[in-house]
Specification:
Structural class: mainly alpha
Order of helices and strands: HHHHHHHHH
Largest sheet: none
Mean pLDDT: 86
Radius of gyration: 16 Å
Helix content: over 70%
Shape: globular
């Protein structure tokens, strides 16, 4: 019974994440922010790390600073009460996204670089690449997009299509900008 509950919860969180990502891509930011808000309501417990990270990523794209701030508060609580490189990396990513959403791009790059160095997963690399792109640091953005594509290129057909397709598109934009 307990395993079934966790499976349903994880499935719902993943569904909300992808729905929010797709709504953002369609320009339906208000509706995406609602998915983000629902994800951010998870408790500040280690098992909620994915949901809170997903909430912060969607909130950033939807420009919902209120939800992003709420997710950061819970991620900070988890990183304090249950310290780990993962919880700290997720917190730094969310703080970097908040800095970027607030127009503090240099600080965003610093925080996202720290997140990427601490927890070297694809989402942190992608967030850092996006920040570098906004700051017109095309060489670094290109390198990060290439890393994302290299790690997930073959999985584009099978999982997490939206984010990885976007990384291909961004890499193409970087190539065009770099000549």
């Amino acid at each position: 019974m307990k395993q079934e509950y966790w499976y349903r919860t994880a499935h719902e969180e993943l569904s909300r994440y992808w729905l929010g990502q797709l709504l953002n891509l369609e320009g339906k930011h208000h509706t995406a922010a609602e998915q983000s808000r629902l994800l951010s309501e998870c408790p500040a417990q280690p098992y909620s790390l994915f949901a809170l990270r997903a909430a912060s990523e969607i909130a950033y794209e939807a420009r919902s600073l209120r939800v992003l701030t709420a997710a950061i508060g819970k991620l900070r609580q988890i990183a304090t009460e249950y310290p780990s490189t993962r919880s700290q990396g997720f917190l730094l990513q969310a703080e970097g996204l908040e800095a970027a959403a607030s127009g503090r791009n240099a600080q965003a790059i610093t925080l996202l670089t720290q997140a990427h160095e601490l927890w070297r997963d694809i989402a942190n690399a992608f967030s850092l690449a996006e920040a570098c792109w906004r700051e017109r640091e095309f060489a670094q953005a290109f390198s990060l997009y290439e890393r994302v594509i290299g790690k997930k290129g073959t999985a584009v057909r099978w999982e997490q299509q939206t984010q990885w397709v976007r990384s291909f598109a961004q890499a193409g934009r970087c190539l065009r900008a770099l000549g």
